[in-house]
Amino acid sequence: MGETTSISWTDATWNVTRGCRRVSAGCQNCYAERQANRFSGPGGAYEGLVKLRPKRQFKIVNGEPTGDFRTVHEPRWSGETKFVTEHLADPLRWKRPRRIFVDSMSDLFYEGFSDEQIAAVYGVMLVAAQHTYQVLTKRPERMASFFGRWSADDCIGAMARTQLPNGQSLPGPKQWNRPARRDWYSVETWPAPWIWHGVSVEDQDAADKRIPHLLATPSVVRFLSCEPLLGPVDLRHVQHERMFELDALTGDHGVTRPLAGRGPKINQVIAGCESGPGARECDVEWLRSLRDQCRSAGTAYFLKQAIPAIHSMSAGAARPIPINIGTGATWKHGIVIELPYLDGIQHAEFPRVD
């Protein structure tokens, strides 16, 4: 897959795995499904991975669906997968350091991929240490458990066992010369500090289910992708399996039930509205709330995209939404502003890593 990308919070995409399944409301208008469908014909890169399924499309009158409908066909993941070994070594070929979004067209921790395949991807991330990797998933349970079962050398070994299309293989643990940046290895920091981990959070339910598993994942940087943002999200009061609350931005546990100590926290929040066909509404107050929560906790906030609208959706609000375009911002699809200004300020912050 291509090195460059239009995703504003990363520099490049690296798609080693193909295929997925929908798991929550955030998947309803999956852009990856639509993109994959374009290349799902015979001989295409996504052949057999996407199928067209019938769907009723109701006529909308005055904002409400009527009994009139037509049958349309929408692309859906078939559940099948492919491990694209010809792209496994891509980061090794990219000499210029960059932020790399791992699997923008899939989910590395989708159950259709084996631990061996996932480990091989991590092996490359360890060796190509000039980059920063952003691993985003909707399956944080598997991600959290992975690091308890696989070590750094295990992952490098899995990488070495993976045969590339030309019959060559990548270097194994004995052949790998660890440069100076890998001093993490001597102090057993696993995973490496240049591998960031995040989860998708579209609403409070997703926050409550996924964030605790992300916080249980060993990582120097943890981030959230609140896009598409479909409802208000309170990161200061995340319900941990309905047993107690935690403040995901400070690491404080036991908001309602006392627990000792301060735990891991979220280092960056990326937020944005949905775009493309059938895009659902995103209230500016939801974006503001996340901004204010991050500001009070000193957490990096990145507002990826938003739509200028006439009025807020919040009850009783009737003032114009101050989402506008400025230096560094661009129009996307004609109605969405990429890197917009919220209340006169553009938010494109990244966590500081020592």
Can you describe what's shown?
By secondary structure, this protein is an alpha/beta fold. Helix content is 20%, strand content 24%. The protein contains seven helices and 18 strands. It has helices at 31-37, 90-93, 115-127, 140-149, 152-161, 204-215, 284-297, and strands at 12-14, 17-18, 50-61, 64-77, 82-83, 99-102, 132-137, 195-200, 222-226, 238-240, 244-246, 268-272, 300-306, 323-324, 330-332, 336-338, 341-342, 345-346. Strands 1-6-7-8-9-12-13-16-15 form a nine-stranded mixed β-sheet. A three-stranded antiparallel β-sheet has the order 14-17-18, with no helix packed on it. Helix 4 (140-149) runs parallel beside helix 6 (204-215). The protein is globular. The chain starts with 11 loop residues before the first strand and ends in an 8-residue tail after the last strand.
